[in-house]
Prior knowledge:
- This protein is of the alpha/beta class.
- The protein contains 16 helices and 18 strands.
- A hairpin with a 7-residue loop joins β1 (about 1-10) and β2 (about 20-25).
- α4 (about 155-170) runs parallel beside α5 (about 195-205) and α13 crosses α15 (about 380-390).
- The longest helix is centred in the C-terminal third of the chain and has 21 residues, at about 415-435.
- The termini are far apart.
Amino acid sequence: xxxxxxxxxxxxxxxxxxxxxxxxxxxxxxxxxxxxxxxxxxxxxxxxxxxxxxxxxxxxxxxxxxxxxxxxxxxxxxxxxxxxxxxxxxxxxxxxxxxxxxxxxxxxxxxxxxxxxxxxxxxxxxxxxxxxxxxxxxxxxxxxxxxxxxxxxxxxxxxxxxxxxxxxxxxxxxxxxxxxxxxxxxxxxxxxxxxxxxxxxxxxxxxxxxxxxxxxxxxxxxxxxxxxxxxxxxxxxxxxxxxxxxxxxxxxxxxxxxxxxxxxxxxxxxxxxxxxxxxxxxxxxxxxxxxxxxxxxxxxxxxxxxxxxxxxxxxxxxxxxxxxxxxxxxxxxxxxxxxxxxxxxxxxxxxxxxxxxxxxxxxxxxxxxxxxxxxxxxxxxxxxxxxxxxxxxxxxxxxxxxxxxxxxxxxxxxxxxxxxxxxxxxxxxxxxxxxxxxxxxxx
Length: 443
Ligand SMILES: [Zn+2]
């Protein structure tokens, strides 16, 4: 048992309740919020002067790309993919992929992110799943599916489907339910119609999430239109792939009709402002999506296009970027935090289990120290302090599934210092392999 004592709880319940209260964790659940004597054997974490939030949920990341950080700058999406990301992903072996996943998870947990929806690469997927299992993070994700278009990652359709089915049956529900499988077709341009139809059938049959990219850049949207004769989201809807189990990263260039498709079908959109800015893709119409009733979550995307996995950075961008067009009151900080918590949980199909601090829910929690000069004086709305001022490095303690994974700003299950120190050498070996395969990482 753990008692979080005396913190300010941003519960993110339906009323966005804020309260100063103790929170008792019993095994993997939030057992009690509020007064009551703590059991004598409970471990106490002093949260006086701190903000306690639901663990942050990032509904679109690529752990396989953590090792590509700072290796793919200054390119727009389609060139960034073909000249850097696909050759580098193809050069991964199980060892470098496992390292990349651990590096990414270390950054995520230290910054208060407790749940991710990940897209792995095409091969060696189990290296990512093992890293998730060992590190304690709550993980949804799966093998990337690509059976069309150019590039070294293209696979035979049947083989790709056989492998995703095998891995999904093996890993979905692993680590006490902390790991969940998702079907991950990369994007329309990398996938045959047959593959996408099979993904829909598999998702229906197995109940697995579908995690893909859609309408990130103008060039992509135009290529999809050339290829399919219709808009990207409209095409996915025609195949039957827009459902409440589907999560679409980006949705930057979507028509009013496509926004209505997302709302009607319950498809989640994931806003990735950092990546959208750095790849010069555009700005997603988030206020419009929300106004139409679309569930919008938040994600850092990858360290190769952001170049950080910092949820606080994404929250601050999301809270400010849209005000130019929509006006200063358009995105209150509590609603931005909702995108990074309860709306993310909904995207993952886990809104009944995580995403808010409520009795009976899973104990996925982050404690944030807002005593630093960059957060003080605290205003009347602690959501504002958290979203506008706080940083990932202000996170002191993190609990996932009732397990303390960060204590006093230090990881309990991974060695962050060792991972950071070894990253350059790992990246160098990976780049050498990419060159050896004859794929040149040219400008
Ligand atoms: Zn992505």
